[in-house]
Amino acid sequence: MASTAAGKQRIPKVAKVKNKAPAEVQITAEQLLREAKERELELLPPPPKQKITDEEELNDYKLKKRKGFEDNIRKNRTVISNWIKYAQWEESLKEVQRARSIYERALDVDHRNIALWLKYAEMEMKNRQVNHARNIWDRAITILPRVNQFWYKYSYMEEMLGNIAGCRQVFERWTEWEPEEQAWHSYINFELRYKEVDKARSIYERFVIVHPDVKNWIKYARFEEKHGYIAHGRKVFERSVEFFGEEHVDENLFVAFARFEEKQKEFERVRVIYKYALDRIPKQQAQELFKFYTVFEKKFGDRRGIEDVIVSKRRFQYEEEVKASPHNYDAWFDYLRLVESDADPDTAREVYERAIANIPPIQEKRHWRRYIYLWINYALYEELEVKDPERTRQVYLACLDLIPHKKFTFAKMWLLYGQFEIRQKNLQAARQGLGTAIGKCPKNKLFKGYIELELQLREFDRCRKLYEKYLEFASENCTTWIKFSELETILGDTERARAIFELAIGQPRLDMPEVLWKSYIDFEIEQEEYDNTRGLYKRLLQRTQHVKVWISYAQYELSIDTSDRLQRCRGIFEEANKGLRSCEEKEERLMLLESWKEFEQEFGSDTTRERVKKLLPEKVKKRRKLTAEDGSDAGWEEYYDYIFPEDAANQPNLKLLAMAKMWKRQQQEEEDDEEDDEEDEEENNGEVDRELTVVTKQQIQYHYPGK
């Protein structure tokens, strides 16, 4: 109590379970349910059947049932099922007036209940109260015009009663609300059941306006075809194509149109329809169209028609590619190749104009290299295929105006334009164009092409002027000097050619001086000016001591048919050997001596051959230390070096080399002698071992006879 008074509640003790083992008999939930089902304690017995024998009992029964229904309605007025049960019970007693009253009371409670209206109207129709049913359907479709079930049942009732005009009026009232597609089809089928084709056509006219779908237009056209109105069907298809236009075009419409014409054996119309559709529908949406077109051409077309289908499909692919990447010039090339082979010139021009409109965004030559071929192909197409010289000229001039010549140019465009003008026998325009090119943006290729052109025209004075301009532009170009001199040689002016060579070798900077000197020497040899040739070789050797120049000089002296040619050739070899002693490239000196040796073997004596043989170097292997780029040690490398006997500085090295070889030979001989002694000793030891083995076996047999 003290604790309770203090405001604390005493917690009862929890009973401890001492035996936690499971019970012997286990009861499951399934067993409990089964026992309850078997006993059926909750089920009440059915009430006894009551048999009514007189009118008073019947009235009591009616009163009791009505009181029950009214009580249920009073409890919950919004439960429409109670009202429907009540009305159906009254209907079963043939109390139609009472049932009608109950339905009306129910409609006052919920006039938007669809099931209530349907039960009410079905009751009136079942009891053949036609006017009452019409009244109910009129009220229903006025209050709930979007409930299609009311309209269907109302129209069906009127048609079953034979009231065709009334049924038509119901459908007309329904179509004013623009219902779903099935309602229109029901109306059309109703008219067709009574052979009213014109009225069905008028319904279709309104239908395709309310529901402007492709499938509805196709159904309209098939309706006309089915009833034999081919012209009307074709007109429907044509109207549908105009109605949808190019923005909302659908492949199914064209497929249906084409198949319609195919049934009428209008194959040209079919082909035109397919081509018209393929030109306007994107590739991704035209797969079925391609398939049907291909099947049609295989059935009724020729090889050309099938190829047209394939070309159209490829054209769509290229269109998608160039739309996705306008600067993909390879795609444009493929597209243009296709158009050129199959389309008319206007279509090809249109594609070319679209292609050349995609100018590279950066003014760098590497971005323009592919683009410029679009212009070249365009010009060649106009000239060779269309044979329109004036338009070809416009293409060339437009291209040359477009190229930024101050940053870069394309010599091939200038040359192609010049060659085109010459083909048109307009020499003045060709020269003017190439002259403009040289003035704006001189290039080696331009000069070469212009000179080649004048050479073909045999305008040698112009060629001379062009070579002079060319050499002013690129004085270091040895090929130009050589070509200029060759031109003068061909024209027979050797002095002028020699003067050109002299000017050329006097230039401070040349790109290939060895080629120029060789050409000058060959020129003098052809003119049989041997003294001039020797003078050129001497002048060249003053500038360079290259071994090939010496060898060439010697071979030249050998080739001249004179009595002292061998002495001259041998003297050049000796002079070259002296000159190359100070050369660091020992391979070049070795090359000279090999060439000298070949000369002596062919034309020399034993004495001269022996002399050259003594001059040949010794090939020795050496090692040198390698250093990395950062200065660290990179190891050792073996290489071959040549030691010439003539060099006084190399004499000690030769003696040392000879002594080393002799020492190596002695070491080899000593090793061979030692190997022979070891082999003899091994043979003696082997014989002693064999003798000991024989004696041991004899002793074992003597002491152990059984073994």
TrEMBL record:
Pfam families reported for this sequence: HAT_PRP39_N, HAT_Syf1_CNRKL1_C
Residues in Pre-mRNA-splicing factor Syf1/CRNKL1-like C-terminal HAT-repeats domain copies: 81-361
Keywords attached to this entry: mRNA processing, mRNA splicing, Nucleus, Phosphoprotein, Repeat, Spliceosome
GO cellular component terms, semicolon-separated: nuclear speck; post-mRNA release spliceosomal complex; precatalytic spliceosome; Prp19 complex; U2-type catalytic step 2 spliceosome
Function, as annotated: Involved in pre-mRNA splicing process. As a component of the minor spliceosome, involved in the splicing of U12-type introns in pre-mRNAs.
Similarity-based family: Belongs to the crooked-neck family.
Official protein name in the record: Crooked neck-like protein 1
Organism (species): Oncorhynchus tshawytscha
The encoding gene: CRNKL1
